[in-house]
Amino acid sequence: RDYEPQAKRRDAAVSAALHAGGIAFESFKDQAVLDGDEVLTQSGRPFTVFSPYKKAWLKRLTEDDWQPGEGEIGTLATPPGAQRVPALAELGFAATDLRALGFVPGMSGARQLLDDFLGRISRYRQQRDFPALKGVSYLSIHLRFGTVSIRELVSRAIAAGALRAGNEGAATWLSELVWRDFYFMILDRFPYVAERAFKPAYDAVAWEQGAPADEAFAAWCEGRTGYPLVDAAMRQLNGTGYMHNRLRMVSASFLSKDLGIDWRRGEAYFAARLNDFDLAANNGGWQWAASSGCDAQPYFRIFNPVLQSERFDPAGKFIRRYLPELSAVPDRFIHAPWRMSPAEQEACGVRIGRETPAPLVDHQQARQLTLERYAVVKSPAVP
């Protein structure tokens, strides 16, 4: 089963066409561990807050839910007549050298990553937010394309002690897998989120428009905001098709709450460039950052990009990897190079406005504008 609105319409059309020809059509749960009516509130409604959903999800979970399926993969039917499976170029895609991006495709690639991650899963909770560290599993693209089973990952998390006290790494990783099911459920039950805010009141937010907003958006896309961590994150995305999860939150918050640009523009940009793009997770993450989604951060919680940089890339290792022009900037200035004096800029060969851009906005001023912008949704109604 697919939970995206367009995919559901497609499958319904296929089902109707087959039934009209006397051919049966069946769908099966495969992308999610639990879906449909398997996790509901006591009143029989879908959850809209993650914590109680996770509690109910864990209570509902049985060994049968994460055991591998017993079905066999059949042989694909031969297209009738002169029809054939279209070539990649005919579908509008160009071939990509995935290995040049450090990505090993297929089940063998997923196996390598999973085996590696299980050797360090105990450190996952402590290291997952630091982009310069090898702290996450990097399995999202394999989940997206089905080269690893979500059931196997859940079973491995449980085997690593996710349901036992004292195994924080495995427990935190399992929680992230539950978030995946949660966002599938939200998209399935509230399909309007693909186009609008989950909390309807947030559709009243007046985003920046016109040429200045377009120029700011282009600068964000190209990694020219003047905030090193944000720019490094965007260069990672543009160069590799991947962005670390902490940086997805930071860059999304910066676009919507520092630049005041509609979260849907950022969501679409990520969708076009993420190798692991999944509508449910991408939409859920962007609406979380913009505070318009279910169980999102409060609208007045606005990430400070400098403080995020100091906390999660303290030595500037990640920044220097993707912004080599800042390699000579001292650690004390790497998170905010504009704080250097002209003499200090000259000494390290980084002049603000030349080798590196000046900040697009002052964060404190942008924060105040955001609080004013969001004043229309101080008490948003939840559907």
List the helices and strands and how they pair.
Elements: H1 5-20, H2 50-60, H3 63-66, H4 106-118, H5 124-127, H6 140-145, H7 150-159, H8 168-189, H9 210-222, H10 228-240, H11 245-258, H12 263-273, H13 279-289, H14 305-312, H15 317-322, H16 342-348, H17 363-373
What features would you describe in this structure?
The chain has 383 residues and is an all-alpha fold. The chain has two domains: 37-59 and 101-185, Serine Threonine Protein Phosphatase 5, Tetratricopeptide repeat; 196-383, DNA Cyclobutane Dipyrimidine Photolyase, subunit A, domain 3, CATH 1.10.579.10. It is built from 17 helices and no strands. Helix 2 (50-60) packs across helix 8 (168-189) and helix 12 (263-273) packs antiparallel against helix 13. The longest helix has 22 residues, at 168-189.
Summarize the structure.
The chain has 17 helices and no strands. The chain is mainly α and 383 residues long.
Give me the secondary-structure category. Answer: mainly alpha
Low-confidence stretches: none
CATH superfamily of the largest domain: DNA Cyclobutane Dipyrimidine Photolyase, subunit A, domain 3
Number of strands: 0
The CATH topology of the largest domain comes to DNA Cyclobutane Dipyrimidine Photolyase, subunit A, domain 3
Largest sheet: none
Q: Number of DSSP helices? A: 17
Question: Overall mean pLDDT score?
Answer: 94
What pattern of helices and strands is seen along the backbone?
A: HHHHHHHHHHHHHHHHH
Question: Beta-sheet strand percentage?
Answer: under 5%
Cα(first) to Cα(last) distance is: 25 Å
Radius of gyration (Å)? 23 Å
Principal-axis shape equals globular
Indicate the CATH architecture of the largest domain: Orthogonal Bundle
